[in-house]
């Protein structure tokens, strides 16, 4: 599974334009190998928009980037709606079931996501799943990926925003680089269309 994380930095007066152009990515639903896309606004930093793309594998993603991406991107005018864009790609993504056991139902049912990045160190990795999510939060599922220095957890939640757990992780000596909570925009969600 390939996971793409896109962070866009959007001025307050361009939020509507960004959101409007983000809806035009619905064409992704028909692309071979595309599984889903969702995103929203940071609840603390309202100029931070984060979009997550989920792909079957690297080959299908590369085919999309070579053949389709630029056509959608330049037609929807999104480039003019943000100041800066940062993209992270990982081809070693995994889906970890929570209350929901499938990618599609997790994305449909989610209203919030929490993204937590943790530095690799000599910490006890068995503590992470138990300290990442507050006991009162009902995590629908989590997407996980890692590179040489960092593990990233994208946890999806239903109708209530999750509690930030950075302090709990740090208390257990787990080196958290960053943790952000986003309110998802349902109109940004795109899911794979099943062919008959």
TrEMBL record:
Residues 2-88 form the DUF4937 domain. This is DUF4937 domain-containing protein. It comes from Priestia endophytica DSM 13796.
């Amino acid at each position: 599974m390939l996971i793409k994380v896109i962070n866009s930095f959007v001025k307050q007066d361009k939020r509507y334009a960004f959101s409007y152009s983000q809806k035009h990515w619905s064409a992704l639903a028909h692309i071979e190998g595309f599984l889903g896309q969702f995103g929203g606004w940071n609840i603390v930093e309202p100029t931070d928009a984060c979009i997550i793309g989920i792909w079957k594998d690297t080959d299908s993603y590369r085919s999309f980037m070579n053949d389709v991406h630029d056509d959608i991107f330049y037609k929807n005018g999104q480039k003019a709606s943000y100041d800066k864009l940062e993209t992270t790609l990982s081809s070693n993504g995994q889906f970890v079931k929570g209350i929901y056991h499938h990618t599609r139902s997790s994305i449909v049912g989610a209203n919030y996501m929490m993204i937590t990045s943790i530095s690799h160190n000599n910490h006890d990795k068995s503590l992470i799943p138990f300290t990442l999510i507050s006991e009162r939060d009902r995590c629908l599922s989590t997407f996980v990926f890692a590179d040489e220095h960092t593990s990233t957890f994208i946890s999806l939640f239903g109708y209530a925003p999750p509690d930030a757990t950075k302090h709990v992780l740090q208390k257990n000596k787990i080196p958290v680089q960053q943790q952000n909570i986003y309110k998802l925009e349902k109109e940004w969600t795109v899911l794979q269309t099943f062919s008959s």
